[in-house]
């Protein structure tokens, strides 16, 4: 994982006393480290599941079914999870999620160790773990603003993004290595990670949300609809997430095109993994550099600049075949992606009232996940029909169109009001 959060000092507002580094914020460090462990454990399990199913059944279709069950909660559970995160005690909810995930992953470890593997059990465990992870991540995102001073929120979310990218980068080799040692060990590792997270949550002292309205609860569907309504009325936020979702859709085609470029050039799976890892490092650096950028450029400039960089870099993939250069290009694009994720996340958390955090985050995540799923579905057909050159040229053109749209969009010239300035839209 990356270094402990908050290595840089934050001076706060002008004339105020300097804030202590986040590494000295006990509650934030406990949350950051515990969630980081669960992210690494979840990634190791996701890598190990297809290996396990292929070893047990020999069926690629069965392996795909388990992978689908692990990802399906991103689409099915997001919206109700967001409403329940706003309704329930977030700390208690995260503890219950860790307990449930611990039991689910430990049950798989026991089943594998004793030779009692069942496909239905694996599908159920993957779906349950994935669903609980959605709740866990939404609750953590909403809780961060209560554990750090307002002036350190950008630094905190920067560290969270870097942690997420580091877990994705390290999860594949960790999961593969553990599976090589013992087929049950990745799942035991994930169970231990959830135990660590559970202990860290029990040690945190600060509350994860502000006071809640004691009025009778409304139907869950009504509260979910409120999340959509609130988000839709924030024109800056909806325009921003629309642009990011469109780029997510396009990036699915880029990822698949890079695989074809490496394969057609005679490259191995190990080479492709190395190139992908270089890109992951670029994304982590982009996340870590977000605080520097947010102090020097407005969000609109960062978004337009990042999309323009993507549009300029993508055509180079058409002519470049040297693996080192491909890795460098992916790192540049991932740097911009990590940067946009952090500055966009800081903005979203800052303008969303605490009682709406879970629902708004779930709406935005669902839009991004849905765009990624559509991109994965359509990119294969595009590459079959247009080839790598035609597909990348089309994606570059779409990226430039998105950059132009962001440049002229009236909604991006006026940020939405922060909580307290205007809360009448709900």
TrEMBL record:
The chain crosses the membrane at residues 29-57, 63-81, 93-113, 184-204, 240-262, 268-290, 302-320, 326-351, 363-383, 389-409. It comes from the Bacteria. Its main location: membrane. It is a multi-pass membrane protein. The keyword RNA-binding does not apply. PROSITE patterns: MFS. It is found in: Cell inner membrane. Residues 13-414 form the Major facilitator superfamily (MFS) profile domain. Keywords: Cell membrane, Membrane, Transmembrane, Transmembrane helix, Transport. InterPro entries: MFS_dom, MFS_trans_sf, TM_effector. This is MFS transporter.
């Amino acid at each position: 994982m990356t270094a402990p959060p908050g290595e840089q000092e934050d001076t706060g507002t002008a004339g105020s006393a300097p804030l202590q580094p986040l590494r000295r914020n006990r509650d934030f460090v406990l949350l950051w480290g515990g969630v980081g462990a669960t992210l690494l454990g979840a990634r190791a399990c996701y890598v190990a599941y297809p290996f396990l199913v292929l070893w047990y059944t020999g069926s690629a279709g069965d392996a795909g079914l388990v992978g689908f069950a692990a990802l399906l909660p991103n689409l099915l559970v997001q919206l109700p999870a967001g409403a329940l995160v706003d309704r329930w005690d977030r700390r208690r909810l995260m503890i219950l999620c860790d307990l449930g995930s611990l039991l689910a992953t430990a049950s798989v470890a026991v089943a594998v160790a004793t030779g009692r593997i069942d496909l239905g059990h694996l599908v159920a465990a993957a779906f349950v773990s994935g669903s609980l992870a959605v709740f866990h991540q939404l609750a953590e995102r909403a809780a961060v603003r209560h554990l750090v001073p307002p002036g350190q929120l950008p630094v905190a979310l920067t560290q969270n993004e870097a942690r997420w990218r580091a877990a994705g980068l390290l999860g594949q080799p960790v999961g593969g290595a553990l599976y090589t040692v013992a087929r049950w060990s990745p799942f035991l590792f994930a169970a231990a990670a959830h135990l660590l997270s559970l202990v860290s949550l029990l040690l945190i002292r600060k509350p994860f949300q502000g006071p809640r309205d004691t009025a009778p609860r409304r139907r869950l569907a009504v509260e979910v609809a409120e999340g959509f309504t609130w988000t839709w009325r924030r024109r800056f936020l909806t325009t921003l997430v629309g642009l990011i979702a469109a780029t997510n859709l396009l990036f699915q085609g880029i990822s698949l095109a890079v695989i074809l470029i490496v394969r057609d050039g005679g490259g191995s799976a190990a080479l492709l993994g190395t190139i992908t890892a270089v890109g992951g490092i670029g994304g982590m650096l982009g996340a870590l550099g977000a605080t520097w950028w947010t102090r020097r450029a407005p969000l609109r400039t960062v978004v337009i600049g990042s999309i323009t960089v993507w549009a300029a870099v993508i055509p180079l993939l058409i002519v470049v075949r040297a693996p080192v250069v491909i890795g460098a290009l992916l790192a540049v694009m991932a740097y911009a992606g990590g940067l946009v994720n952090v500055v966009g996340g800081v903005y979203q958390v800052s303008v969303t009232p605490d009682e709406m955090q879970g629902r708004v985050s779930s709406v935005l995540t669902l839009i991004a996940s849905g765009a990624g799923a559509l991109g994965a579905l359509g990119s294969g057909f595009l590459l079959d029909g247009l080839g790598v050159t035609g597909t990348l040229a089309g994606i570059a053109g779409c990226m430039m169109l998105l950059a132009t749209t962001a440049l002229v969009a009236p909604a991006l010239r006026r940020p939405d009001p922060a909580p307290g300035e205007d809360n009448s839209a709900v």
